[in-house]
Amino acid sequence: MNFWTHKKLASIHNLHDVERLARRKLPRPIFGYIDHVAEDGRTQRANLSAFDEYLFLPKAFVNVSQIDLHTELYGKRYAVPFGIAPMGISALSTYQGDLVLARAAARRNLPMIMSGSSLVPMEEVAKVEGADWFQAYLPGTPEGIEALLARIQRAGFKKLVVTLDYPVPPNPDNFRRSGFTSPLEPSLRLAFDGLLRPGWLCNTFLRTLWNHGMPHFENNHAERGAPVISRQAARDFSGRRHFDWGYLDLVRRLWPDTLIVKGVLNPDDAVRAQQAGVDGIILSNHGARQLDCTISPLQVLPEIKRRVSDIPIMIDSGFRRGTDVIKALALGADFVFVGRPFNYAAAVAGQAGVEHVADLLQREIERNMALLGLTSLAQLDRSCLYQATAGEEPRSIAT
């Protein structure tokens, strides 16, 4: 690790710090893409305030000299109860970003879900040890779905994560405000934004052009997609309005390995997904990126866990602290995925930054478990929490 990377890592004390540093490092449109929330940000505020509804009830004078954070999920023993959520175009955050995230995840023994909106071919990422999670946006036809799933399987992925709640793209007004389009449209302003970040321009964008040519959306379909910068080409976002549960049934028939669905918030949808034969559910509003005024996944977690108890229920959206992860696990989540902070960390300090942020979150969880008087994740349940409702005294939510 060189001096400058060490210096950057020394200034990152928690997951909030990397956002501040990434804002300085990334061009305005790229940071705007990662930071994007839908419309007026009410969903983002709901995600954050949901954690404030729960307070801890710690136990004192417990021997916490040994704390075990290992988590079993789909037959693999991970070092921690969290992983890296799928994030599109991360190869514009740092050079070969998808590989950076996958290699960091392998080093820290945690799962990384590769995004279907990624710029590195899935076949390259699948070569990284443990990189066997892939998130897909389904093409609009059965033939396209079958071709994409066949490619994912050939690449070697064993865990397919299908995003359900994407019939149309989100409102683009905040994207436009930051100068982001998909693909990016070449302009003087885009060039100026790049020149304002010479480190990113040389070490990420020009390095990519020199070694690999113009990045393309590589993995939305069985074939290569549009270039990431183009005035003529357009990404195909059409063809999903007609989707219904029959398409998930089709995927279940076609996919022979572990099938997980992402983007579930309604308990009835969770039950229907289980009936379709999925092997797991990720509760998510995608970090508030798509529909504004949406409920937080944490708020629906207890009811979904009550109704769907025999497959893993995972969760993402808004997790920034070890206390956030612990609260979700206490409410019944089997695993937590974290997105933006890992993307920001990659932008700031590459693979070392991602590993550093994973270490910070792991240490927060371990420290807070000790302060709670708990030594294993199996001891986390609703008896650890009090629920704080505005204007009322906190109340136990133990079952």
Automatic annotation (TrEMBL):
Domain FMN hydroxy acid dehydrogenase residues, every copy: 7-390
Enzyme Commission number(s) from the entry: 1.-.-.-
GO MF, one annotated term: oxidoreductase activity
Cofactor annotation: FMN
Family in the record: Belongs to the FMN-dependent alpha-hydroxy acid dehydrogenase family.
PANTHER family linked to this entry: FMN-DEPENDENT ALPHA-HYDROXY ACID DEHYDROGENASE PB1A11.03 (PTHR10578:SF143), S -2-HYDROXY-ACID OXIDASE-RELATED (PTHR10578)
Protein name: Alpha-hydroxy acid oxidase
Lineage: Bacteria, Pseudomonadati, Pseudomonadota, Gammaproteobacteria, Oceanospirillales
